[in-house]
Design a protein that fits this description.
The complex is a heterotrimer of chains A (about 700), B (about 160) and C (about 280). Chain A has about 700 residues and is α+β, with helices and mostly antiparallel strands. Chain A contains 19 helices and 28 strands. A seven-stranded mixed sheet of chain A has the order 3-5-1-12-9-10-11. In chain B, about 70% of the residues are buried. The longest helix of chain B is centred in the C-terminal third of the chain and has 14 residues, at about 100-115. Chain B is globular. The chains are: A alpha+beta (about 700), B alpha+beta (about 160), C alpha+beta (about 280). At the A-B interface, helix 1 and helix 16 of A face helix 3, helix 4 and helix 6 of B.
């Protein structure tokens, strides 16, 4: 075992176990007042009039008039306002804030705001968006983006094909359900506005403040507070409450706290994109898959947000871990009057892998082949060309991963046995997660940099990566102290503050250890050379590896700088009376390179698997007329301790050539493969194809063949 | 109205609305920041405290019904030897990630172990059934409590 | 701002109830959710509140040879810890909510809340439980199924307090409970069935079945019970189809955020079949 993998006590442990960590809702700066958001109750309308009650002294309304520069939330496109002006596009869209010292008075003011709408016919699903006509939500088309890419000679192979196997799959919304809701506190001293809160990406909020306020960065400060879970839900969304709180603090000249209640949080924060994915495989006379046609449709909601980037990851992931010579892949992110979809652990991957893995399963079934062996035939290998025609430069150990998961779970004999045992099933999935930003995004969009400082024998790390429970305050210290070969307690690292941390990029995309960790390692190597100097600092910026290529116009080249790989097996038994799924066990094998801390890795794996299990079979979240039906923790059901099956996980140690100490990305991959493995197991158990997730007992009842 | 109760073994008196939630009184009036709000409807257990020794969700308790009761929060519990055992158990088992649910789990563990000092893994899972964690997937919390019961043998 | 009352005795509570328009607060686990407001602000109770959770007179479980009398403020946890109570009566209770909910939740609250998904109710219906309500002028007694008149509505008058729940103290040769929830803990039921039976010399001498979450109230299947009582065990296989048809006629489930009408019907029938065909044989 690698020395660096040995677990140490987490640096955030003491504060958290003792309940001393101050999360944003626990933070009360002197003179603080409260804000509450007044939101649209309709999914699409013109605002005809808005009447406010008289305001008592010390109370404020903050709306689009209070934005000094642009009323835009900068994400990818400039379509989303910070506050609605004369139209609303989804239920929960912020219109204004009521700000003041007494919550009771704020509620009274909220209750006395009257708003008159002129309803416009809303577009409420992918299907409606596909056929809708003007007025469109986004420019002059029903979608935000549509993409396609090709590999090989698709048309020729289709003509050669002797058999076509096709499937269509649907996936639902998923709510991140971090335990701490969206929370921000802003303060303003007459010159600088400071936003402190629950977040993944301090510099996204810095950018949002620059755009809305038109101020330069010297007047803007963003600090991450201890954050009670994120899972993507605190990637781009917190820019909205962050700017809201800042505007309120600037107007009221008081510190302002903006904390969402759970119901408000579920109704209006971003969700995992619902999808409809169809896949057609073309087989030749020897039943070899010679071509594949993939079409991914996502419901992006009312504003573009990150939908374009999620869609990119989704269409790359939809090719799966397979080398199919001829591909035609399309994707569309539709605009609807639903809540804005956004980042969520896996970022388009879980939908795509659910579809491609179910499709492989169905091909195996039709060809009467072992489901893993059929997959194995097409596994990508080192030196192969990827779906986007980049070369896989590094060793890929999918064979080993598959062998391990088969052995651990006793897959083959169970699979055979359950053919004759009713209501029992076992299923598998093989998947990857591209680590870091798509293509050359790290170099071209993010341009991350890091800083470390030596002051006598003490070292301090300055990065904008956030501690969201994944252990960054511990792993980065390990990387730096191990490189410097000094005791770890001499290395200091705190929650990021934009005042002294450079922009190391957002804490997303399984990139933190791989990209930011590597930059820190590079700094530390440099620092070690100059160790005799008493005090100095080193700043290191990312350089795109010279062996990689990417053309973002035609999606050609190395889609990601590195990849993590995995396989899951899930065994189930269906209750004959209630159609409930009893998950007997989950087996998981990953290549995440060399783990930086075994225990932290295990925590990411088990937590990700359980979140994936919720996505697969529990977490029903539906939009009815643009309103989410399950908007509390009583109705939106995430797994409890009693819903957890035994989880057996294992790592194959295949060092990354890019990551520090051979580590690859880990945060997302554990969630990605659970749903297809579970669905394949249910499919075997009931004998009917599963075409949607989450799979509920209600669905199983309809499909069960006894 | 004036409510008197015992918080972490000290008498306290607060002047609040009778229908204020115990959660808000603890957080806003008595600065017990370990008591977290996750859902506001008794589903997540982040606001767990012990009321007369029993685990309760403080979001579901009107302060009027707390008059004369003993309330224990992590601020009080963390001074005990039993807490030390749980702390060590959670540390070695990797039971803490984002930490927001952690105070609730610690008090749920205390409630469980004080009723059953030698629980099985299944009994531990049952003991924490009302505490949601979105980070760990629970296995490492269960392991932490099982570890704590060994470390703290004789304390419960 | 609503007022609050915290009486020192049941009698005082009854007088407050008579003289004021008040809502009764027992454990709080239902009303604190129903009337919750923005975090940091008090629950918005619609009327003055009468707190009774502290009343010692209502905190005991009295057991005689013929009945178990549960005081209105007895928590589920207290009921579960009472070793005198038969295990089969505990089965539905130990699946309610979570540890923390069972420490404050009460039978009386569950009954007065009168939800068709109330977790105590199928058992209370099947066991022919009674409720005692008191006012300053006296007490009234109801069979549970007469007391609950619809979703959220009961016979309780404005001057009355539900003080006791009475369960006949009797054991049965067979008992059955199945709750199908949205998850395995802290879940609201989609369907639940509680049933008891006495089988003597291969003949069903008594049987009672109640179904939750399949109609506006919990449904007791008296016609079905009458049809089965007196039957030989060996006849059940033949009768099952017609019995299930009767059940299907009787239940009126709906589609909602938790489940579907068709699922609830099918599962209710499956559970009853499982009880009659599998459980009764054991």
């Amino acid at each position: 075992m690698s020395k660096i993998s040995e677990s140490i006590k987490r640096y955030d442990f003491e504060d958290k176990i003792q309940g001393k960590a101050i999360y944003t809702p626990d933070f009360h700066p002197e003179g603080m007042i409260f804000a509450k958001t007044f939101r649209s109750k309709v999914s699409r309308a013109k605002i005809l009039s808005l009447q406010l009650p008289p305001l008592p002294k010390g109370y404020f309304i903050v709306d689009h008039h209070d934005i000094p520069a642009k009323n835009i939330v900068p994400v990818v496109f400039e379509d989303q306002p910070v506050f609605a002006v004369d139209e609303v596009n989804y239920i929960g869209e912020p219109i204004l804030l009521v700000v003041g010292p007494e919550k009771r008075v704020i509620l009274e003011i909220m209750n006395n705001i009257s708003i008159e709408y002129q309803i416009i016919q809303p577009i409420l699903s992918i299907e409606e968006a596909e056929t809708c006509s003007a007025p469109f939500i986004f420019n002059n088309k029903p979608y935000f983006v549509d993409y396609e890419y090709h590999k090989g000679n698709f048309d020729d192979s289709v003509r050669r094909a002797k058999r076509v196997i096709s499937d269509e799959f649907k996936t639902g919304y998923q709510e991140q359900a971090y335990l701490e809701t969206q929370s921000m506190v802003a303060t303003y001293d007459g010159h600088t506005v400071c936003v402190q809160g629950s977040m993944q990406c301090p510099y996204y909020i810095v950018e949002a403040l620059k755009v809305a306020l038109g101020w330069n960065e010297s007047r803007i400060r963003v600090i991450q507070m201890p954050t009670g879970g994120a899972f993507g839900g605190k990637e781009e969304f917190p820019s909205i409450p962050g700017v809201h709180a800042a505007l309120a603090a600037i107007k009221s000249k008081r510190p302002v706290k903006l904390v969402y209640d759970r119901q408000e949080d579920i109704q209006c924060s971003s969700k995992r994109h619902p999808s409809i994915i169809s896949i057609k495989s073309y087989l030749d006379e020897n039943d070899e898959i010679i071509a594949r046609d993939i079409d991914v449709k996502l419901d992006g909601g009312a504003y573009a947000g990150l939908s374009s980037v999620v869609l990119q990851r989704s269409i790359f992931a939809a090719a799966g871990c397979y080398n199919i010579e001829n591909l035609f892949v399309r994707g569309t992110a539709y605009a609807t009057n639903n809540v804005v979809s956004g980042a969520f652990r896996g970022f388009g991957g879980p939908q795509a892998f659910y579809a491609i893995e179910m499709h492989m399963e169905n091909i195996a079934k039709q060809l009467k082949k072992d489901p893993i062996e059929l997959r194995r035939k097409y596994f990508v290998k080192q030196g192969d060309t990827s779906s986007t025609q980049g070369t896989f430069h590094d060793p890929i150990v999918l064979d080993l991963i598959a062998n391990e998961v088969i052995a651990m779970s006793d897959f083959k004999s169970k699979r055979l046995r359950f053919e004759s045992e009713k209501l029992k099933g076992i299923g598998c999935s093989i998947f990857y997660h591209g680590c870091g930003f798509t293509g050359a995004g790290e170099a071209e969009l993010i341009k991350p940099s890091v800083r470390i400082k030596k002051e006598k024998s003490e070292i301090e790390i300055f990065i904008s990566s956030t501690e969201i429970g994944q252990g960054v305050l511990t792993t980065m210290r390990k990387i730096v102290s191990s490189t410097l070969e000094i005791p770890i307690d001499h290395v200091h690292h705190n929650y990021p503050d934009s005042r002294d941390c450079p922009d190391s990029g957002p804490t997303v995309a399984s990139r933190t250890v791989l990209i930011v960790g590597r930059l820190l390692q590079d700094c530390a190597i440099e620092m070690k050379k100059r160790w005799n100097e008493e005090s100095f600092e080193i700043i290191q910026s990312y350089v795109y590896p010279s062996h990689l290529r990417w053309d973002n116009q035609i999606f050609k080249g190395n889609a990601y700088p590195d990849y993590s790989w995995g396989a899951n097996v899930v065994e189930v038994e269906i209750n004959a009376d209630t159609y409930e799924i009893d998950v007997k066990g989950i087996w998981a094998v990953y290549d995440i390179g060399i783990p930086i801390d075994d225990k932290i890795v295990k925590g990411q794996i088990e937590g990700g698997i359980v979140q994936g299990l919720g996505y697969a079979m529990m977490e029903v979240l539906e939009s009815k007329k643009g309103k989410l039906s399950q908007d509390t923790f009583t109705t939106y059901i995430i797994p409890s301790s009693l819903d957890i099956p035994p989880i057996y996980s294992k790592l194959v140690k295949n060092p990354s050539t890019i990551g520090p100490f051979g580590a690859r990305g880990l945060g997302e991959i554990p969630l990605v493969g659970v749903a297809p493995a579970l669905a394949c197991a249910v499919q075997q158990a009931i004998g009917t194809n599963i075409t949607k997730i989450p799979i509920t007992p209600e669905d199983i009842m309809k499909g069960v063949q006894l | 109205m004036k409510i008197d109760f015992v918080l972490n073994e000290e008498k306290v008196s607060v002047e609040v609305e009778h229908s204020n939630r115990l959660l808000d009184v603890l957080r806003d009036d008595l600065h017990q920041i370990s008591v977290k709000e996750g859902c506001g409807e008794g589903e997540c257990g982040s606001c767990s405290v012990l009321m007369n020794g029993k685990l309760v969700n403080s979001c579901l308790i009107a302060i009027a019904s707390v008059d004369g009761c003993h309330i224990l929060t992590l601020e009080g519990y963390r001074k005990t030897k039993r807490f030390e055992a749980i702390r060590k158990g959670f540390e070695v088992s990797g039971s803490v990630q984002c930490g927001f649910c952690t105070p609730g789990f610690v008090l749920a563990a205390e409630a469980l172990l004080s009723e059953n000092p030698d629980p099985s893994a299944l009994e531990v899972m049952k003991g924490i059934e009302g505490n949601l964690c979105r980070c760990t997937g629970y296995q490492m919390i269960v392991a932490g409590i099982l570890e704590a019961k060994e470390i703290g043998k004789g304390l419960w | 701002m609503v007022r609050s009352f915290k009486p020192a005795s049941l009698l005082e509570a009854l007088h407050i109830r008579k003289d004021n328009d008040v809502m009764v607060y027992g454990g709080g686990s239902d009303v604190m959710i129903k009337y919750r407001s923005w975090s940091g602000t008090p629950a918005q109770f619609p009327k003055d509140v009468l707190y009774i959770g502290h009343l010692e007179e209502l905190k005991s479980i009295d057991i005689s040879d013929s009945e178990i009398a549960i005081g209105a403020t007895v928590s589920y946890a207290q009921f579960l810890q009472d070793e005198r109570i038969p295990i089969e009566y505990k089965r539905p209770i130990e699946q309610i909510g979570s540890v923390a909910i069972r420490n404050i939740g009460t039978f009386a609250g569950n009954i007065c809340n009168a939800s068709p998904a109330g977790d105590t109710l199928p058992m209370l219906y099947a066991l022919n439980a009674k409720v005692i309500v008191m006012s300053t002028v006296g007490k009234r007694e109801f069979a549970i199924e007469n007391f609950i008149t619809g979703p959220g509505s009961t016979c309780l008058k404005n001057d009355e307090i539900l003080t006791h729940i009475i369960i006949p103290n009797k054991t049965y040769s067979h008992s059955y409970y199945c709750k199908v929830g949205t998850r395995k803990a802290n879940a609201i039921s989609k369907v639940s069935v509680f049933a008891i039976a006495d089988v003597f010399k291969h003949q069903v001498t008594d049987i009672r079945i109640a179904i939750g979450s399949c109609g506006p109230t919990v449904i007791r299947l008296k016609d079905v019970e009458a049809k089965i009582i007196g039957s030989k065990m060996s006849d059940l296989d033949l009768m099952i189809e017609s019995v299930l048809m009767m059940v299907d006629d009787k239940i009126v489930p709906i589609d909602d955020v938790r489940s579907t009408k068709i699922y609830r019907s099918k599962v209710a029938l499956n559970l009853i079949e499982a009880f009659l065909i599998k459980e009764l044989r054991q």
